[in-house]
């Protein structure tokens, strides 16, 4: 059986997923067979495995760190919020159904056998399994039914490293408060503390590390510096999606700390022939799989914005409507914000518009959810593509490797281009001639739609698209060379491993693991 190490955090967003990926990478580099595990994950950023199972995006990245194909065993329970109180529950990679939060809380312990079985299958081929917790381990009202933090650590007899985020301040209070709320048995499992995202001279922090011993006898395993990495993130708390209405300069957003909602976009840009390309992604309330657009952050000459205001679209060269976990509600939000009218106006002006998955469904004539798969009801779409969508209980989950069909209008030059990615969607869409549109791309004039997540990660497709956008807008720049996403991820994971080797005490970590 494999040995264990568990990474917990003082709260969401402290960097557990990235720390887990980095530690896995170090262990793999040191010659161990390793695997990631997260028993329960709440995220709208998901991934489809080769066998058509759905897991959290973070576990797919962690699998990459281990040199493994992602598996549903790495994340046996995935919770996808559909509203304030309802979520879709994914078990072993397949939908179990929609549940109210209260009902799931009452019944989640019944899923422990699924969690144990998934872990056991992983442990057969692994020397070490690095387990990621979720949120905080000391939500005292959730302790009795816990299956992802200390409850899981007890089931699997896992030692714990506890991480805190120093970036917002108060990291010593985070760590001490978390440990103080633990029971004696839980506290005994915490073998080391990590301070994450430190900026500046670490020697200035050392007095605090020494003084902390007066309050807590758990040793520090290290202080990890704030490091910008081009790696997939999981949650809507990602800094990529933080609202920032005060961004007033004309610098490239891709070189900033974050990609922002920018409602001052119209003030920022002047259309000169050597300017950057402006891509605006609609920041839907239930946005999912925004990692579809990470590729644009790494392309020199492209500025990526997340926006939630119609006036911010005036100078956009490309507007993208992303995926969503609640298509009908987000379409209603789009209308209430005036964004639907603005998108139609831009379409009339032949501004390129692309819809991915739920965004693709919104671009059609209608969406029918007569069985209440999401919000229920029948609504009109934006009417920019000749498709009609009907929701069913069946969930499409598969990887896709294909070529774009013969396209007309603006997108004709990207016809017959190899593309790859994956589908995650309820229901199906049919075009006016009764042709089912899954596994392909459909375009009319300057509007394009597809169910394929990750389509922009295909370098040849995205290079052709950027070339078209440059030509349309008179931008005089060289066409960027786009790196394969797997190459980027490998390089960044190795860089992360280097950072952790320098900042964490791996002799301590190996002792904690029992090696």
- Our measurement of the CA-to-CA distance between the termini, rounded to an integer number of angstroms, reads 14 Å
How many structural domains are formed by the residues?
2
- The tally of strands reads 24
Question: Can you list the strand order of the major beta sheet?
Answer: 2-9-1-10-11-12
Q: Tell me, briefly, the overall form.
A: globular
The helix tally amounts to 16
Looking at CATH, which topology of the largest domain would you report?
Rossmann fold
Helix content: 25-40%
Overall SS class: alpha/beta
Oligomeric category: single chain
Instruction: Describe the main β-sheet briefly.
Output: 6 strands, parallel
**What is the CATH level 1 assignment of the largest domain?**
Alpha Beta
Protein name: Cobyric acid synthase
Organism: Butyrivibrio fibrisolvens
Pathway: Cofactor biosynthesis; adenosylcobalamin biosynthesis
Keywords: Cobalamin biosynthesis, Glutamine amidotransferase
Question: Descriptors for this entry?
Answer:
515 residues; alpha/beta; Rossmann fold; 2 domains; six-stranded parallel beta sheet; six-stranded mixed beta sheet; 16 helices; 29% helix; globular
Question: What's the short story on this structure?
Answer:
This protein is an alpha/beta fold.
